Amino acid sequence: MSANESEAPEQEFYHESILLDEVVEFLTPKEGLIIVDGTLGGGGHTEALLKAGATVKGIDRDAEARHYASERLARFGPRFEAVAGCFSEISELAEDGKWGGLDGILLDLGVSSHQLDVGERGFSFRFDGPLDMRMGEEGRTAADLVNTWEEAELRQIFWDLGEEKSARKIAAWIVQEREKAPFETTLQLADGIEKLIGRRGRTHPATKVFQALRMEVNDELGELRRFLEVAPDLLKVGGRLAIITFHSLEDRIVKQTFRDASKVEIDRPEWPAPRPNPDLVYRLLSRKGIAPGEEEISRNARSRSSRLRVVERIKTPAA
After folding, report:
1. Sign of CA dihedral 91, 93, 99, 105
2. What DSSP designation does 10 have?
3. CATH code for position 199
4. 189: Cβ–Cβ under 8 A, 6 or more apart, which residues?
5. Are residues 241 and 197 in the same domain?
6. pLDDT in 10s for each residue of the chain, 319 residues
7. Are residues 168 and 293 in the same domain?
8. CA gap 314, 55 in Å, rounded
9. What's the CA gap between 288 and 248, in Å, rounded?
10. Residue 205 shares a structural domain with residue 274
């Protein structure tokens, strides 16, 4: 590594990368490898991969994140490229960029600290701002959903995506309140939910509703499912896929996909014997989700719910 590559420019803090050492350990970055960071954010994971010698393509739909990371990582020259897009579009981006077979792919599905802490982005119930929640610049906002969706639709996403026990009560309240005045700001919604259901413990009562709205606005589970369908075809044999999740819905999808695609044989009660798995493409490198250690959790409380799962692309008889 050159002296120029060893020092990052002074910038306002953006985001502390979670499970950083573990990601580097599993992706084994080195000179000559091409790795895609599908959730570039502030570039923390990407920086560590670049320091180890890899070439990294960082994908993000957030123009602010791409600008920040480009400044932070400019010292690595052509080994880093910030790419506009969603990680579910990785096939098209790889084809357009002529990336070829990939040695590694990383997804960190958490929302960045910067997005949560800047009220103008509309993700936070601690700072007032427009009720937006878009990670990019296009599409419907959280205000669009809250002000136009039917009560049953709101109730369903609060229950399914937020796992909110008071989903019915909150959805009914929203529909009633928006008749008086539309919801426009984050605190207008968050404070109203707190008055409606009260506060128990340290967790803000609007947390799960905000999570559900953010996930719906950005189609987060759809993005993940579309990515998982194409990921095996993008990796070289021996290439690795690492995904960091933050709640049970994401983790369940990743865990099930990795498990189904790494079974050598499958069996059913009606079959006389197990059969080769036609969907076998991976080898599990982590049987269980890897959690952050106590030191990382004490340093960054937002890492507490994170889990890292990793697989390796293998050569199959059909390959």
Report:
1. negative
2. P
3. 1.10.150.170
4. 125, 131, 146, 174, 183, 206, 209, 210
5. no
6. 554 555 555 445 456 799 999 999 999 999 999 999 999 999 999 999 999 999 999 999 988 899 999 999 999 999 999 999 999 999 999 999 999 999 999 999 977 554 555 444 445 667 788 999 888 778 899 999 999 999 999 999 999 999 999 999 999 999 999 999 999 999 999 999 999 999 888 889 999 999 999 999 999 999 999 999 999 999 999 999 999 999 899 999 999 999 999 999 998 899 999 999 999 999 999 889 999 999 999 998 888 889 999 999 998 766 5
7. no
8. 22
9. 14
10. no
Q: Whose CA is closest to 282, among 318, 241, 317, 224?
A: 241
Report the residue count for the chain: 319
Alpha helices in the chain (DSSP H): 3-6, 20-27, 44-51, 63-72, 90-97, 113-117, 142-148, 151-160, 167-178, 186-197, 207-217, 220-234, 248-260, 294-299
Token pair listed for 216 = 């719906």
Asked if residue 139 lies in contact with residue 133, where contact means CB atoms within 8 angstroms, the answer is no
The residue to which tokens 């979670």 are assigned: 18
| Antiparallel, parallel or unpaired: β 55-60 and 80-84 | parallel
The pTM for the full model equals: 0.88
* Cβ neighbourhood burial of 177 (10 Å; 0-12, 13-18, 19+): middle
Positive/negative CA dihedral, 222, 81, 51, 241 = positive
Range of the domain at 155: 138-217
Structure tokens at 255: 């865990």
